[in-house]
Amino acid sequence: MSKIAIMGAMPEEIEPIITKLDDLNVVEYAANKYYEGSYHGKKVVVAYSKIGKVFATLTATSLIEKFGCDTLLFSGVAGAISEDLHIGDLIIADGLCQHDLDITAFGHPYGYVPEGEVCIPTDEKLREVAKKVAKAKGLPLKEGIIATGDQFVADHERKEWIGKTFHADALEMEGAAVAVVCSSLDVPYFILRAISDSADMDASFNFDEFLESSAKISADFILAMVEEI
Ligand SMILES: CCCCCCN(CO)Cc1c[nH]c2c(N)ncnc12
Fold this sequence. Notes:
Layout: E1 3-8, H1 11-18, E2 22-29, E3 32-39, E4 42-48, H2 53-65, E5 71-80, E6 90-98, E7 120-121, H3 124-137, E8 141-148, H4 156-166, E9 168-172, H5 175-184, E10 189-197, H6 203-228
Parallel strand pairs: 1-4, 1-5, 5-10, 6-8, 8-9
Antiparallel strand pairs: 2-3, 3-4, 5-9, 6-7, 6-10
Helix pairs in contact: 1-6, 2-5, 3-6
Bound molecules: the ligand CCCCCCN(CO)Cc1c[nH]c2c(N)ncnc12.
């Protein structure tokens, strides 16, 4: 029986999901809480990692290695880089990169370390499910590269540099860590983000204002995908 991991970084990102689960059971593990349950007859395990790549790595690994999940869906919010992404819009990741990984002093490209790859692709089949759900809901869905780093970006210059350097359309703080874990453990994964801000000087104000509503948009979409997987 398949078991689907649903992961976020913050409580607001998984709250709208946990409230919808049946047979809820909370397991404390590795300084975190994992919510086991079912949704439309599908077994799911839900958790938020806390913010940043390190916490995301621990949670993604635990969901797979400890809880036996064989598919991972990430739901959360992100900062927009692309001009055609506005607050509340959805973007799915074709691939993810680490914008703050830098050994360019040795002539390597930004986001690269030996035996690694700059951009890690997401699972094609899960992206197709998302497009099917978006069509059925009549929701626009952008697809693009999402850049991850251990920084809340609230600076136009930094955002533009990330966009140009990685051809990224959005940015956040966990996706590429999930990508490394899932691709290394051969678990299909999918990253969905709803825009909460534009990673510029107003980012922190917009983030505070739109976190909850954007997180709910992403969460509702992820639950619709669970029905189709
Ligand atoms: C208390 C502050 C919590 C920030 C967490 C933000 N998440 C991280 O995944 C997504 C995100 C939304 N907007 C962002 C931005 N402008 N820069 C980085 N990350 C983001």
